[in-house]
Structure to design on (368 residues):
């Protein structure tokens, strides 16, 4: 004996049935329920095919929760079979919509993660329990809280952008050219198969790896990528926070006149400091350190640039004099020209007497 709940072939998509002038009470009830779900806008069914899929999902949802049989037994004695099916499907669909308000994500059951099948979607979550998502490439993402943008234009390319909050990922082995990337405003994480966490903090991103190997690429300031292994974690500062930390380290190096800068703090700060920053102290120290290494050309360039940008007249005076001395040590005529440039800018400078004494001596092949 066939089930009275088998959908008849002529069953219309629910949206169409609800809009007919002669709609039944159950169909009008469904339309009112949808309007209650979306009070400020028209219910957004994408297409007839989309609503047909929702009808099928409603039936599957009812079967999973064993409500179909119970409701069928109850309604079978009260209403005709076709009306009973429509009422069951409508009730099941409404229950599923209440569970998943985001219309960009496929409907899901409590027994597994949501299957994200669309190419692009933005998700937000503030619940007590993580929101579990299954992507096209098989990766499972647990959104603990915050806002996550998902872009999966193909099964080979998946990019997640974590604007705020924290996620945990379990990524199956991605072979060939397949790749998954997680980006924040501070860094990009590249994986090919691993389990790891990404947490977006106020001015930094924390990456912790449980299995596999991930590549973390800090964004901005020319920072080199780093690899994080199982059991390890790393914190990547945002560009602004990293630059502020660099500034503090540069100030310490300048105060102590230290040249032990294996990480290239001075070079990075000089290269990426925002416009308007007084770089003269860092450039002056670069000149001193270049002299210690015997790199005269580099030292001259650093001193002359320090003199050009300095907002401190004494530092500019000293920097231009040091550059002139170095030029003179390399070539007498070149040194004389440098001392003349010094006197043009600082005719009563701290080193004006030294400049005039140097120029009073005729250099070989030059003029006094």
């Amino acid at each position: 004996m066939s089930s009275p709940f088998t959908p008849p072939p002529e069953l219309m998509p629910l949206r169409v049935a609800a809009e007919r002038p002669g709609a039944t009470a159950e169909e009008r009830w469904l339309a009112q329920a949808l309007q209650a779900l979306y009070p400020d806008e028209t219910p957004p069914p994408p297409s007839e095919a989309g609503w047909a899929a929702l009808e099928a999902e409603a039936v599957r949802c009812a079967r999973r929760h064993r409500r179909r049989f119970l409701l069928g037994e109850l309604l079978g004695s009260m209403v005709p079979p076709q009306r009973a099916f429509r009422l069951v499907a409508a009730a099941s669909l409404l229950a599923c919509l209440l569970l998943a308000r985001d219309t960009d994500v496929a409907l899901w059951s409590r027994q597994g993660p949501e299957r994200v099948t669309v190419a692009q979607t933005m998700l937000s979550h503030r619940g007590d329990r993580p929101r579990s998502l299954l992507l096209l490439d098989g990766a499972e993402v647990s959104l603990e809280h915050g806002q996550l943008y998902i872009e999966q234009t193909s099964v080979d390319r998946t990019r997640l952008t974590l604007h705020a909050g924290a996620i945990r990922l379990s990524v199956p082995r991605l072979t060939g050219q397949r790749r998954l990337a997680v980006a924040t405003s501070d860094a990009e994480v590249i994986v090919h198969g691993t389990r790891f966490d990404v947490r977006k903090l106020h001015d930094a991103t924390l990456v912790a790896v449980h299995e596999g190997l991930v590549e973390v690429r800090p964004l901005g300031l020319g920072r080199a990528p780093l690899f994080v292994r199982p059991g390890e974690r790393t914190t990547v500062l945002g560009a602004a926070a990293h630059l502020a930390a660099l500034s503090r380290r540069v100030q310490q190096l300048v105060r102590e006149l230290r040249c032990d800068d294996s990480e290239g703090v001075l070079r990075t700060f000089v290269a990426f400091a925002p416009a308007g920053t007084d770089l003269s102290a860092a450039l002056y120290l670069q000149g001193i350190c270049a002299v210690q290494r015997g790199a005269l050309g580099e030292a001259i360039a650093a001193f002359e640039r320090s003199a050009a940008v300095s907002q401190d007249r004494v530092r500019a005076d000293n920097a231009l004099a040091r550059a002139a001395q170095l030029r003179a040590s390399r070539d007498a005529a070149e040194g004389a020209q440098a001392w003349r440039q010094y006197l043009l800018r600082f005719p009563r400078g701290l080193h004006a007497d030294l400049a005039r004494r140097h120029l009073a001596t005729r250099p070989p092949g030059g003029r006094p």
Q: What stands out?
A: Residues 246 and 264 are 10 Å apart (CA to CA).
